[in-house]
Amino acid sequence: MTDAFEFKAHIMDERAMQRALMRIAHEIIENNRGVEGLTLVGIQRRGVTLARMLRDMIEQVEGIRLPMGELDITFYRDDLSILQQHPVVNATNLPFQVQNAKIIMVDDVLYSGRTARAAMDAICDMGRPSLIQLAVMVDRGHRELPIRADYVGKNLPTSKSEMVGVHVPEFDGEMNVMLYEKK
To answer: What is the distance between the alpha carbons of residues 5 and 124, in angstroms, rounded to a whole number?
Structure first.
């Protein structure tokens, strides 16, 4: 974690995250009456890893491997100028037609709603999907925009001085959710 934050609490271990992802997978299947026409879009970075995990779980249940894309929303952010002087840009790869697609966006944490809004803007610049839903591992509250997740692994009320860290093996070498406090 950054030097500005210190560990406060262990929120979810790997098993709890796996259970939450499996529940989300079942909810996606149930709410969409199956998976026909669904696509997954992981928001860079950790949302991509979570989307892959969801895709694998949905495939276990339904026997169908959903198309999946990766979305970088860096240049769609309305706070880009205050985030970093030299932002890191990751790949966007949507290997399917966005027009009329049923898209499930996947991200790690829902906070202000600005990332989800930027992701919807980026997707809609590529076509007009028939449906966009949002799945997140953690909803920590403090919305600044009228956006809500359709699928949530864990609701975790936080203060603005706290930070939620969703760790995945690909980037962090472990899978868990931690809460950090500003020093």
So the answer is: 35
